[in-house]
Amino acid sequence: MGRYRPPQPASSKYITPEGKQRLVEEVDKLWKKRRPEVTKALAAAAAEGDRSENAEYIYRKKELREIDARVRYLRKRLDGIVVVDRVPDNHNKVYFGAWVRLEDSTGKQSIFRIVGPDEFDPSLGYISMDAPMGKALLGKSLDDEFTLKLPDGEAEYVITEVSYEKIE
Fold first, then answer.
1. Sign of CA pseudo-dihedral 26, 28, 29, 31
2. Please, what are the domains in the chain?
3. What pTM, to 2 d.p., does this model score?
């Protein structure tokens, strides 16, 4: 019996202009800088002789495949994304690109930005619109309360601030 896993649901195609720029820069860096370096190292390793026992050659081939796969994925993803660069009319409601300040039942505050799945970064406070928290926030308004199911129970939050400029 194989290790079949059903395909993941397609992620959202939305992205911020900054997120698209980062993806374009990653493709350029991989294709124009990293790939030529790896190709040169691969050629040097291939020139050493027996390739079947040449660890450097095997490693560089693998690295080249990984770079090519990532570039293919990013180019395909860039073809289908929708850049959201417009701020909505209602600034008190949470839409894509919004910065949101939340307060939980203990009084702890958190700040998040709703972004696309290609640009989430917890260290920056960016959460994907496809994540449970992102889904729970979308469409909510200022002062709305909501409950989020977590692996270890439930958590209650209230939205204390919504902005389309970075919240400090």
1. positive
2. 14-83 (1.10.287.180), 99-163 (3.10.50.30)
3. 0.80
